[in-house]
Amino acid sequence: MADRLMKVNAYTTFDLIDATITGHDFETETLAVLNATSPRKHPDRVQLQFEADNMQEEHLPAHMAEVSFSPDEARELAADLEKHADKVEAAEE
Fold it and tell me: Where does the pLDDT of residue 3 fall: very low under 50, low under 70, confident under 90, or very high at 90 and above?
């Protein structure tokens, strides 16, 4: 991902994960970066950032998506992720 918009370093949550980009008439599997962060100075939100590798993607230009959460919303998302992780683990047993 030489054309990255996100800064990726040792603190990035996931620097290479499998992702699927879906549009009305296409679906592409690619690598992506996913990061959970908050501002260093005056942290007032939790941010979830996502950038798909566009080196082989022909449908979308280079872009990054970012969603901001309040602390309560971030905890609600974390709880939902835990619930679904438990569900997947139980199905694997």
Answer: confident
